[in-house]
Amino acid sequence: MTSSAYQELARHWTRLHRFGHLYSMAGWDRAAMMPAKGSEARAQALAEMDSLLHSLRTEPRLADVLARAGQESLDEAARSNLREIRRDWTSSNALPPALVEAQSLATSRCEHAWQTQRPAENWSGFVGNFREVLRLAREEAKCLAEASGLAPYDALLDKFEPGTTSSEVDRVFGELQTWLPGLVRAVRDKQSRETVIEPQGPFPKTAQRALSLDVMTLLGFDFEAGRLDESAHPFSGGVPEDTRLTTRYRDDDFVRSLMGTIHETGHGRYEQNLPRELLGQPVARARSAAIHESQSLSFEMQLARSASFVGLIAPLLVKHFGAQPAFEPGNLLRLLTRVAPGLIRVEADELTYPAHVILRYGIEKRLIEGEIEADDIPALWDEGMASLLGIDTRGNFSNGCMQDVHWGAGLFGYFPCYSLGAMYAAQWFAAIRRGTPDLDDRVARGDLAPVFDWLRANIWQQASRWTTAELAVRASGETLNPAHFRRHLESRYLGQASR
After folding, report:
1. Of the residues 264, 271, 300, 350, which is catalytic?
2. What letters, b where the CB count within 10 A reaches 16 and e where it falls short, cover 289-302?
3. Contacts of 366 (CB under 8 A, 6+ apart)
4. What was the pLDDT predicted at 231?
5. Containing H/E element for 219?
6. Nearest to residue 52, comparing CAs of 5, 92, 11, 110?
7. Residue 2 has pLDDT above 80, yes or no
8. Averaged pLDDT, 14-18
9. pLDDT tens digits, residue range 325-350?
10. Is-contact 340 349, C-beta < 8 A?
11. What CA–CA distance (Å, rounded) separates 389 from 384?
C-alpha cells in the first residue's frame, strides 16, 4: 500500500516527538540535577538540539507534503492533527535558524545564572543577561507577527494561547478589576474576625517530601510514569511517558511546598492522561497554556482548598509532622483560604493572585512592544505592587521582579494564561457540580473519581483535537465565561453567589 502524504507527516512529527523527549529530559536535568559547572556545555548542547529540531520542522520538502496531505480524504482526528502540524510548520518557518540557536543559548545562560543571582539580590547581573533575551524575544515577535499578521505581543501570546489576543485579555482583566478589589476588601474584613492557629515547625524536608508523595498518590499521579524532584522554581516537564515535577521546600513552612506540589500534580496528570493512541502527534499535545493551567488550578485551588479535600489531607499532616491544633480540619481550611496580599506569585491566595498576573502582563506587553526597556522593570514593578496590592517592594529584587524564571527563559506571553486558567478551572468545576450535585460529600469520603473522570473525558483525552473555544463549549456548554470564577470566589469566601 502506498504511503499517503499525511502518513509521511505523521512519521516525521513522531520523530520530532522522540527528539523532543530527550530535549525535555536535558532541560529538566539542568533545572533539577545538573552541577553548576555543566551550565555552559548544557547550553551549547541544547542550542544544538534546538537547531536540529528547527531544521527538521522546516525541511523544504514539507511544503509539498503538507499541500498533498491537504487534498487527501482524512478522518476528523487526522484533519485536526494536520491543522496542528501546519501550525507548527508555519510558526517554525517564520523564525531564522540563527535566531533559534541564539535564543536557546541566551535563555539557557540567563536561566541558569538566575538560580544564583536571585537569592543574591543580583539584579545588575541578571539584567546583563536579560537584555539579550529581551532583544531576541522582540526579534522573534517581529518574525512571528510578519508571518501571522498579528501584533508582535499577540504573536507571542498566540504561541501559548492560540486564538487569544491581548485585546481579549485586556477586556477580561479589565472586567476582573472592576469587582475583585472590593471582594478582597470584603473577605479580608470578614477574615479579620476569625482566629487562625499557625502551624508550629520546623517541618523537616524529608517529612515534607513524604507528605508530597502521599498527596500525589491520593491525586492519582502515576509514579511509574513520572517522579518528583526539587528545583529553584517549581515546574512540570518531561513528556507523557515520563512526567517530571519539581517543588521546593522551606523548613519553616510546609504549605508552600504542599500547594506547589499539588499544582504541579495537576499539570502532571494532564500530561499522563493525554491520548496514548495518538502519542507523538501534535493533536495529542495539551491544548494550550491556559488549559494546562486550568488543570493545575483545578487541583490546587478548586479541589485542594475545599473543605472536603482538606478533611482528607489533615490526617496526613498528623502522620508526617505529628498532631497539633493547627491541623484540625476547620483551622487548616481557614489557613489555606486566608486572603493576604503578599510578595510571591506562586504563594498567593486565590483572590490576590490575579493582581500578580496583571502586573506581569502589563510589563511584558510593554517590553515586547518597545515602550519600556529592561532597566525600567524594577521601578514599574514597585509601582505596580504598591498600586495593585499595597506592598512596598523597593530594593527587594529576589522577592520582587526576579522571583519568576519566565522572562529569563524567554517565556513572554505566558503569564496571562495563569488567570485565564483559573477562570477555566472554575468553569470546569461548575460543570462537574451540575453532573455530580453531591460532589463535596463524595470528595469528603475520599471518592475523587467524579473530578478525575470528568477531566479525563472532557479535557485530558481531548488534547488538541479542538480549538480552545470549541473544547470549552464541548466540555462546559460555553466559551470562557469569567462569571464562573466570580461566583466561585464569592461562594467560597463569603458564602454567597453573585447575581
Report:
1. 264
2. bbbbbbbbbbbbbb
3. 372
4. 86
5. none
6. 92
7. no
8. 96
9. 999 999 999 999 999 999 999 889 99
10. yes
11. 8
Residue 452 to residues 232, 265, 391, Cα–Cα distance (Å) = 29, 12, 38
Share of the chain above pLDDT 70, in %: 99
For residue 473, the number of C-alpha atoms closer than 13 Å in the C-beta half-sphere is 6
Cβ burial, residue 37 (10 Å; 0-12/13-18/19+):
exposed
C-alpha cell at 18: 522522540
What DSSP line would sit under 251-299, residue for residue?
TTBHHHHHHHHHHHHHHHHHHHTS-GGGTTSGGGS-S-HHHHHHHHHII
Can you read off the three cell numbers belonging to residue 228?
518528583
pLDDT value, residue 1: 39
Instruction: Flag the least confident range among 14-23, 165-174, 490-499.
Output: 490-499
Say which residue the cell 517530571 belongs to. 244
Q: 204: helix, coil or strand?
A: coil
Q: Which parts of 349-477 are beta strand (E)?
A: none
pTM for this entry: 0.95
Examine the residue annotation and report whether 264 is marked as an active-site residue of this protein: yes
Say if CB 353 and CB 418 are below 8 A apart. Answer: yes
C-alpha cell at 338: 486566608
Measured distance CA(239)–CA(241) in Å, rounded:
5
User: H or E element: which one contains 184?
Assistant: helix 166-191
Per the listing, cell 502589563 goes with 362
How crowded is the C-beta side of 28, counted as CA atoms within 13 Å?
22
In the sheet with 236-239, reading across from the earlier edge strand, the strands are 226-230, 242-247, 236-239
Q: For residue 177, how many other CB atoms are within 10 A of its CB?
A: 13
Q: Phi-psi category of 157—alpha, beta or left, where left has phi over 0 and alpha has psi -120 to 50?
A: alpha
Contact (Cβ atoms closer than 8 angstroms) between residue 337 and residue 349: yes
Q: What is the dihedral of CA 119, 121, 125, 130, to 10 degrees?
A: 80
Q: Residue 301 has what DSSP assignment? A: I
User: Could you tell me which of 456, 428, 454 has the C-alpha nearest to residue 442?
Assistant: 454
In this structure, the strands spanning 226-230 and 242-247 are: parallel
Is the distance from CB of 207 to CB of 321 less than 8 angstroms?
Answer: yes
